[in-house]
Structure of Epoxyqueuosine reductase:
Amino acid sequence: MSLPKEKNTKIIKSIASDLGFDFCGVSKAGFLEEEAPKLEDWLKKGYHGKMHYMENHFDKRLDPSKLVEGAKSVVSLMYNYYPEQDLAKSDSYKIAKYAYGKDYHFVIKDKLKDFMTRLHEKIGEVGGRVFVDSAPVMERQWAAKSGLGWLGKNSLLLNKQRGSFYFLAELIIDLELEEDGPMQDYCGTCTKCIDACPTDAIVGDGIVDASKCISYLTIELKDDLPTEFSDKMEDWVFGCDICQDVCPWNRFSKSHQEYSFQPHPVLAEMDKKDWEEMTKEVFNEVFRKSAVKRTKYSGLKRNIKYINS
């Protein structure tokens, strides 16, 4: 006999807590009706830049049942990555906080596999898939729908208790659960993120022109960087945290407890000269398991050169 959905929901939230996820929320799997025209408009305006993959799987992005047959619930999870030491405050080149330690895809994917194993042990056969930024899932929208926060003016999910320095992950499963429901928007009239963005990438409330975003320029764009932004990078060579650093809700951020996210000891000590003279061997050692490997040694060198051009 299957357990009632209230009991199943309680089990899922208990597993999430045991595995170190800070927040867990549930939504009913269904078509994201409100998001469809927004996504279409964003793509039409070319705000995705050269991330052509964003044009693919339009229907799958909006409907989880096209990713998981018989999907009934989307379980949204948040995992803290806020570091004890902000390396971007030193007089050196900067990388986004999420990339200080081991690539989060590996760390969280392992936890999600463990999650599904425990789910089967406690509830029985549950069909579904796990996701961590690796498929056409509108994770921020699902997290907001399940009450984990709201979408800020910088388009990121903001949580009232702990801000926005979180990785998001999802379980899309064929199990009916109790829904949590969304929360209200607490940004109010604040425009700190919009005002602070040096490239004016935030073009509307919750709308980011990715082709102007420092994260896009330093990671996603594989071509030559456009000359217009070279004096606006503020020493960011991989990703950017400006719109998060200025957000008042991030005053509530607490340091993570994940050993895998600790930076390589060399990284914390590097000055600009070290970055500029970095060899491929040093790059491979310092960023061996890091998300920084996405931009490759040549990409990192390109970004440093661009800032100094």
Remarks:
- The domain at 5-90+97-173 is CATH 3.40.109 (NADH Oxidase).
- The first strand starts at residue 23 and ends at 28.
- Strands lie at 23-28, 73-80, 94-95, 128-131, 150-151, 157-158, 166-173, 202-204, 207-208, 236-238.
- The mean pLDDT is 96.
